[in-house]
């Protein structure tokens, strides 16, 4: 970090550090990390302290020796600039748990928050994973390295260091089942000018979503976290009825342990209810309105697979007041297919359920998609 006396000296140091990598790739990875750290510094500063300094070439070679295979060039460079997030165990500071730079989602008592692994954690968890497969009598995957994982409920991302493909473990990961989470057509790990593997593409796409507001920081108990429920169209729907605004979106949850029992795919959805200005019905303004019931229509492709009515939401009947923060809740639904949609309505009462000030009215929930995305986070 000390200043160097001349450009020649600076170039020599740079060449010794990064001269073995294509310059365009070095610039690309450097830009990624500087942009991500800039976003985190401005929007999620508490997570900055979890980012490690860059690893040395010696550390990378040591990790490769321990793994028994080479890491793809883009992944090596990613770790040269930042050695992932500080590793910690479940016996250590629980306050770090929500600070994964990939983020996650929460519904009912199910909580996922994904951290980018350090080299040390990558080696340790990869060895544990391979040992488990051996004990189960299952074949070990071709040069798979665990590059990211969740602290709360398990969710694991694995990089195929031969092909450059990135996978997410499913509910049957213990049996070796995984799904691709980056478009295979984009992966070019051996391109001489600009190699790109699944991990680099995945992280760059994640940064784009942070920068364009598709995903945002949301509160979690006494902390905050990067929330993966989409916040913008077309993945997030929005509708206003009689002054009541409903926003809705979903995430694919491939790793949930009940996925296979409920349906071939499981999705968690987030509903946000608010009255931005005022509740108005028949030209009359009301100071509040309260949710009474819900109606959901769930489709698999174009076929209605569920049409259900119920009281309240997650056991509550939220009271909405003009200008207050959104009432947010999450739930989940299975689907026997890779794509579908949800739409429906909420029935509200002007005033309060115990003191209605007018007739009940329905509030539209515009359709929002259930789909296995090209990029899975």
Automatic annotation (TrEMBL):
SUPFAM superfamilies: ApaG-like, SMI1/KNR4-like. InterPro entries: ApaG_domain, ApaG_sf, Knr4/Smi1-like_sf. The keyword Coiled coil does not apply. Residues 238-377 form the ApaG domain. PROSITE patterns: APAG. Pathway: Protein modification; protein ubiquitination. Gene3D superfamilies: ApaG domain (2.60.40.1470). Keywords: Ubl conjugation pathway. This is ApaG domain-containing protein.
């Amino acid at each position: 970090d000390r200043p160097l006396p001349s450009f020649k000296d600076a170039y020599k140091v740079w060449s010794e550090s990064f001269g073995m990598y294509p310059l365009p790739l070095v610039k690309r990875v450097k830009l990624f990390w500087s942009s991500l750290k800039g976003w985190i510094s401005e929007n999620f500063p508490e997570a900055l302290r979890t980012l490690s300094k860059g690893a040395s070439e010696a550390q990378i070679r040591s990790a490769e020796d321990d793994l028994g295979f080479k890491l793809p060039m883009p992944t090596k460079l990613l770790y040269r600039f930042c050695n992932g997030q500080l590793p910690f165990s479940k016996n250590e500071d629980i306050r770090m748990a929500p600070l994964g730079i990939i983020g996650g989602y929460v519904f009912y008592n199910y909580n996922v928050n994904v951290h980018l692994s350090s080299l040390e954690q990558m080696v340790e968890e990869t060895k544990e994973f391979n040992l488990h497969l051996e004990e189960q009598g299952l074949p070990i995957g071709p040069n798979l390295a665990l590059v990211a994982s969740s602290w709360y409920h398990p969710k694991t991302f694995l990089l195929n260091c031969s092909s450059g493909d990135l996978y997410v473990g499913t509910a049957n990961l213990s049996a070796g089942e995984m799904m691709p989470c980056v478009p295979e057509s984009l992966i070019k790990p051996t391109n001489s000018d600009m190699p790109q593997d699944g991990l680099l593409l995945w992280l760059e796409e994640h940064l784009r979503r942070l920068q364009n507001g598709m995903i945002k920081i949301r509160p979690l108990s006494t902390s905050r976290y990067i929330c993966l429920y989409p916040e913008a169209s077309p993945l997030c729907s929005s509708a206003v009825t009689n002054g009541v605004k409903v926003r809705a979106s979903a995430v694919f949850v491939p790793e949930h342990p009940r996925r296979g029992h409920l349906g071939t795919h499981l999705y968690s959805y987030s509903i946000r209810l608010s009255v931005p200005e005022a509740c108005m019905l028949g030209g009359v303004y009301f100071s509040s309105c309260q949710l009474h019931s819900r109606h959901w229509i769930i489709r698999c492709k174009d076929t209605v697979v569920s049409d259900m009515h119920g009281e309240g939401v997650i056991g509550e009947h939220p009271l909405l007041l003009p200008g207050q923060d959104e009432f947010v809740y999450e739930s989940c639904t299975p689907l026997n297919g890779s794509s579908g949609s949800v739409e429906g309505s909420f029935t509200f009462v002007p005033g309060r359920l115990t003191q209605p000030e007018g007739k009940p009215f329905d509030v539209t929930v515009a359709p929002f998609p259930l789909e296995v995305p090209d990029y899975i986070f």
